[in-house]
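[job 0417] fold request received: Xaa-Pro dipeptidase
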Amino acid sequence: MPTTLFSLQRDHVAHLQRAYAEILNDHGFDSLAIYSGNASEYFADDHAPPFQTYGHFMHWVGLADVQHSWLIIQPEKRPQLFLYAPADFWHLPTHLPEEPWVSEFVVHFCNEKTIPAMVGNAAVIGDIGQLTASTQQALKAQCQPEHIVRVLDELRLFKTPYEIACIREANRLSIAGHQAAQAAFIGASGELDIQLAYLAASRQRESNVPYQNIIGLNEHAGVLHYQHYDLNAPKQRYSLLVDAGRRFRGYCADITRTYAGPDAPAVFGELVSAMHDLKEELVRGIAPGVSFIALHEQMHRHLGEILVAHDMYKGTAEQAVAEGVTRAFCPHGLGHSLGLQVHDVAGLRHPDGSPAPAPEYHPALRLTRTLRPGMVVTIEPGLYFIDMLLAPLRNSSSPINWALVDLLSPCGGIRIEDNVVVTESGFSNLTP
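[job 0417] inference complete; emitting structure tokens
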């Protein structure tokens, strides 16, 4: 681990200590307890699905799988970490790495599930519903005060240099997986084997991915969150869409690439190139003071131009946007905030915590903020051939080249996604 990353992490913890002290003082709290959360077992079973630590807990310690543990934050005092680490011969007990940041905490290793003592006017946040009613009462604290959570969400929206370094490293590891996935596709592998190649090259097990990888061949590339992996390779290879990520010290990469297969029409390969160019143009538009909604609308204008340029729409680009044609070809938003969660917090709120919902005509948009330095966002324009969205247009007078759409439908669709940090002067693309 580079010494510079250790130094950045200690600076990050010091930044959180100052910010939390100010927030607690401003809101009249003497202490704050953050619960890590815990996994729930499957119904009538004795094992649980993969678990992810509560984001505000992870913000401090960078560990994505800590359960039944607590952080106690008090202004002007070292944070206390109550780490649940029972003596257990069935499982490897939770442990902390031998890294400098650990010395910034007062660490208590707990063999039993612990209820930490709170001081003065106290608050507690996290998945408190997982705790028993008696445990909640024993905390003697305000549970999940919304005004505190909103302020802490806003704090997480702006990444420290340490956090940006982690997201950059998560991207580097994820890129290795994407390269392996592309090679597996060239080698005529099926979806499951492409997934396994991705996991091996990105050095992670499936239970550790930040979200379920989307590996879609052919028409499956047109299912936005395709959730299966066919065991066998298809007889014809039109396309591959890989939307897959990686964690590094809790922080997520979220990258998508689409490839034209040997059996795809030539125009599909041209469209993939055009969508790469569109992604690059949108990334270049990122800067402080830019409205993300405006960037999303720019995506639709240029998508209309792509449809016209490739003879898929025989009207004007402006007409394609106005008539909702581009929304039928791309129903999702341009991107979202990225951090400890793939769809990170505070994207649909104003800086004061009040709601900032998606526009009526773009209800799937997950980020409506004006960009500011320190934000990390995804840029992911898409172009899909989804029958249920295009069907209403077939019965209209819209000048769509249906013969070409039908030719491209077996290819499913295209999505190209990068992770970008907003800087003081513009942007830095974390997905080279």
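[job 0417] notes: Residues 137 and 143 are 10 Å apart (CA to CA). The chain has a mean pLDDT of 96.
[job 0417] exit 0
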